[in-house]
Write a structure and sequence with these properties.
It is a single chain. This protein has one domain: Aminopeptidase (3-Layer(aba) Sandwich), CATH 3.40.630.30. The protein is 33% helix and 35% strand. The chain contains four helices and seven strands, in the order βααβββαβαββ. A hairpin with a 3-residue loop joins β3 and β4. α1 packs across α2. The two termini are 27 Å apart. Keywords: Acyltransferase, Transferase.
């Protein structure tokens, strides 16, 4: 079930900890997980996927005036197949509802699986920053 911002900071921390090793560079090597969870919870629009009371998928985006910026996407292996697609479509629906026309994100350049996922959903590379690829869908 997809919910919008129902989870607590503790739910987000537990989810980020479970996702930590799923990224090419551990998330905990890039951010303080507790502070990041609080920031996502308090400032981002977050789409949550729950399975048996556990947060198994999370997409968090900052909704600026005319651009949505995806800050975090992680779907745990035990989530139902297609969960990433479902979360991304929930964001696209919210963007249509709020008249946002552009969505951007940064993804690690060596995360080929994530890059391919975003390309399948209409994102293109628009630049690079350090070890990240900047992608956009307009």
């Amino acid at each position: 079930m997809i919910t919008l911002g129902r989870g607590s900071v503790a739910d987000y921390v537990a989810h980020l900890e479970a996702c930590d090793g799923l990224f090419p560079t551990k998330l905990s090597e890039r951010v303080d997980l507790k502070a990041y969870a609080a920031k996502l919870h308090d400032r981002a629009t977050s789409f949550e996927l729950w399975e048996d009371g556990r947060l198994v998928g999370l997409l968090s985006a900052y909704m600026d005036a005319d651009v949505a910026f995806i800050s975090h996407v992680c779907v745990l292996p035990e989530a139902p197949r297609g969960s990433g697609h479902t979360l991304l479509n929930a964001l696209f629906d919210e963007m249509r509802r709020t008249a946002k026309h552009v969505v951007r994100l940064h993804v690690e350049a060596d995360n080929a699986r994530a890059i391919a996922f975003y390309e399948r959903h209409g994102f293109i590379e628009i630049g690079r920053l350090n070890r990240d690829v900047i992608m956009e869908r307009a």
